[in-house]
């Protein structure tokens, strides 16, 4: 089986994000001038164009804002996993920030562990992290413990 493609963790714009995920922390970029938070990261603030930003921790809680189901064709590393859901999460404390990710039933579950019939817009989710190499830990999302995954 072909391995899934991994992000490049040494990119100067995203290195702080990947460093934090290795420590099981979710971070977003914050402008040092206007305090605007943003994701994905940029070399400057999207609000005021200031070029000094910092990484700040986010709670890792949100809700499904949108979702889709991958059926194929996919990259070779994903061929044996279809169909699988991809979700867009609206962060609880930063509702203007939305992150794309995988929805899984448990921290070590496969990306196809949640059936499409169990996903709904507004489903509360919490972050979890899965180390996939020495350098990369992927953030993934799980339904909040209070939610059942009944189709």
Task: Annotate the secondary structure layout.
Layout: H1 15-22, E1 26-31, E2 37-38, E3 53-58, E4 61-70, E5 84-91, E6 98-102, E7 124-131, E8 137-143
Question: What does this protein structure show overall?
Answer:
It is built from one helix and eight strands. The protein is mainly beta and 151 residues long. The protein has two domains: 10-58, no CATH class; 59-151, OB fold (Dihydrolipoamide Acetyltransferase, E2P) (Beta Barrel). The strands form two sheets. A five-stranded antiparallel sheet has the order 6-5-4-7-8. Residues 55-129 form the ChsH2 C-terminal OB-fold domain. This is DNA-binding protein. Residues 18-49 form the ChsH2 rubredoxin-like zinc ribbon domain.
């Amino acid at each position: 089986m072909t391995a899934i493609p991994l992000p490049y963790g040494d990119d100067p714009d995203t290195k702080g994000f990947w460093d934090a995920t290795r420590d099981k922390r979710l971070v977003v970029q914050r402008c040092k001038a206007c305090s605007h938070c943003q994701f994905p990261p940029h070399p400057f603030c999207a609000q005021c164009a200031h070029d000094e930003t910092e990484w700040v921790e986010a709670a890792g809680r949100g809700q499904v804002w949108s979702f889709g189901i991958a059926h194929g064709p996919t990259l070779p590393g994903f061929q044996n996993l279809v169909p699988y859901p991809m979700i867009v999460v609206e962060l609880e404390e930063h509702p203007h920030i939305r992150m794309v990710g995988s929805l899984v039933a448990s921290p070590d579950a496969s990306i196809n562990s949640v059936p499409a019939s169990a996903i709904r817009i507004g489903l509360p989710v919490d972050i979890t992290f899965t180390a996939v190499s020495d350098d990369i830990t992927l953030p993934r999302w799980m339904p909040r413990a209070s939610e059942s995954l009944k189709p």
